[in-house]
């Protein structure tokens, strides 16, 4: 039995590529489910023999196939939503111990009657029924615990994504204030020049000239896409790129985004560019720090594409893959240590795309990571 459980654990660990504690929990679920299916099959087979008075290998195999198939299908339909395929469960030690205790307890209580019939917990009659009932109870406890955990995780994820929306919008409002202040400074530039002519202190003159050069550089970074909200977002991200030696090329028709809500524009482009900047700044070769962004219309859709160079280890591919495609339910895993608190940016982008009747997907090929968002055009 221990060997079978160990083989089950290593098979799941290798195939699913998950954390050891996550694998221990899934192995426990699989083991209790197998125990329940086996006990249910045995009980129904004994009952059918008693009713039909027919016993044989064919009847046994048919009974087994029906019970196992039905049990696994029902279990899959109820439990598939509680085990996300695109992220780890991040089971804690306390949670793992609780699940293991439930699984071991169910196994001992369901089989103790077959080992020793003199214990206070042994059944002298209807042992098959007791075994099936205990295994069913253990499985329900594990499913309930997993469902409750998944519900809390989804609630937390929703809160984090809403906070991300708000953060991008707050950054947008701050950037507007900064832009207005800068425009006033540019308007007063001629007064600064006059003041510099009369400045005798070389150090003070150098400081003012440096400030003026920075102000002029920022002014040159102002984007003009035809959409004022997007202009502010792109200008802010462009300045971040300059500081990190990243080249940002944008070919954007901002007029296409006229019907998109301000907060959604901030969230969509803020998260897309934040992810691209974070990946680009990790590229050692500064010549390869390049981000391209485009917004165009094709048929009935607005197409937003952002592409950046990224090392494969930052995309976390399996087995040295050089090419991969990620859909809605298969988003790339974060490379950060705490993947519970990260990875919400792509989900936020997905929410905006779906809000406007579109979709988002990512792809990675030969060092280039691409995010493509489709939005339904209103006209």
Describe the structure.
With 379 residues, the chain is α+β, with helices and mostly antiparallel strands. 61% of the residues lie in helices and 12% in strands. The chain contains ten helices and six strands, in the order ααααααααβαβββαββ. Helix 2 (20-52) packs parallel to helix 4.
Topology:
Blueprint: H1 2-16, H2 20-52, H3 57-79, H4 93-115, H5 127-187, H6 189-197, H7 202-221, H8 228-243, E1 247-252, H9 262-280, E2 290-298, E3 301-309, E4 323-326, H10 344-355, E5 359-365, E6 368-376
Mean pLDDT: 82
Helix content: 55-70%
Task: Give the total of beta strands.
Answer: 6
**Rg result:** 30 Å
Q: In angstroms, what separates the terminal alpha carbons? A: 64 Å
Gross morphology is: elongated
Largest sheet: 6 strands, mixed
Quick recap:
With 379 residues, the chain is α+β, with helices and mostly antiparallel strands. The chain has helices spanning 2-16, 20-52, 57-79, 93-115, 127-187, 189-197, 202-221, 228-243, 262-280, 344-355; strands spanning 247-252, 290-298, 301-309, 323-326, 359-365, 368-376.
Question: What descriptive keywords fit this protein?
Answer:
379 residues; alpha+beta; six-stranded mixed beta sheet; 6 strands; 61% helix; 12% strand; elongated
